[in-house]
Design brief:
MetI-like fold; 2 domains; flat
Length: 276
């Protein structure tokens, strides 16, 4: 019976997705990922319940939803500790400082040749190596997690912004010089606008990296609150539904952050050829 329901669900979902794919209107394009996600959740529920998958291996979405509703105050406190107090400050400091550093390096080819290769080196450093050091330096509260986020987001922004500042064409640069534009005028009116798509790519990348870095950093020392702390402690107690509830909260936070940044990018860089 379960196999028949699974096959029927797959066929129905595929049929609906094919119908949506054949229509290019905006509403249908937006409905496609929603239908796809609902189908994935339904298949997950059918497999877990129908085939009696042990909860320790994979709880069904209904059980995860119950865990979210039951532990909502705890999840909210964890979200505030990790996302509001660590991710957002670290993401802002790392991204802004990376952009300012890219502008400084752009003005100095010597510094650019010396610092940019270090970006690849630092970006390759594992989080599990950085997090304990930051905990020793800044303590067990949110400051050490924000410091990890700063380290993780600084160099992606530096590298992307530096590449974006180099995108301005020679013809546009010559035109600015014919108008007797100085370095700052050229930077603000030509080079930074050309770099905006690269900056937004780094911001969206950093939004994901910041959340991952803060959660992993909480494994190495934190007050008795936080998404990483809850995942590690509840996994040790085999409360896997609570662990999945935290994962769902983190996934939603990362997805919403990415979507908001993509919307802001579309508003700010409407002139870019990719949006025409």
């Amino acid at each position: 019976m379960t196999t028949m329901v699974l096959i029927a669900s797959l066929l129905t979902g595929c049929f609906v997705l094919v119908l949506l794919a054949r229509d290019d209107r905006r509403a249908f394009r937006m409905a496609t990922p929603i239908v796809f996600g609902l189908l994935a959740l339904w298949l997950w529920q059918v497999v877990c319940v129908g085939y009696e998958v042990p909860l320790i291996l994979l709880p069904p979405p209904s059980r995860i939803g119950m865990a979210v509703a039951t532990h909502l105050p705890t999840l909210a406190a964890d979200f505030r500790q990790t996302f509001v107090r660590a991710v957002i400050p670290g993401w802002l400091i790392g991204s802004i400082s990376g952009l300012l550093a890219a502008i400084a390096l752009d003005a100095s080819p010597f510094l650019r040749r010396g610092v940019l290769p270090l970006g690849s080196l630092v970006s390759a450093m594992p989080i599990v190596g950085i997090a304990p050091i930051m905990v020793m330096w800044f303590g067990f509260d949110w400051q050490s997690k924000a410091a990890v986020v700063v380290v993780m987001t600084f160099f992606p922004m530096l590298v992307n912004a530096a590449a974006g500042l180099a995108q301005a064409g020679a013809m546009e640069g010559d035109l600015m010089r014919t108008y007797a534009a100085g370095y700052m005028q050229t930077l603000l009116k030509l080079r930074l606008p050309f770099a905006l798509p690269f900056v937004f790519n780094a911001l969206k990348l950093n939004a994901t990296l910041a959340l991952i870095g803060a959660i992993v950093a909480e494994f190495f020392g934190t007050p008795i609150v936080g998404m990483g702390f809850r995942i590690s402690t509840e996994a040790a107690r085999l409360n896997l539904d609570v662990v999945w509830a935290e994962i769902v909260m983190a996934a939603l936070a990362g997805t919403i952050s990415f979507a908001l940044l993509a919307l802001l990018e579309r508003v700010v860089t409407f002139w870019h050829p990719s949006y025409r």
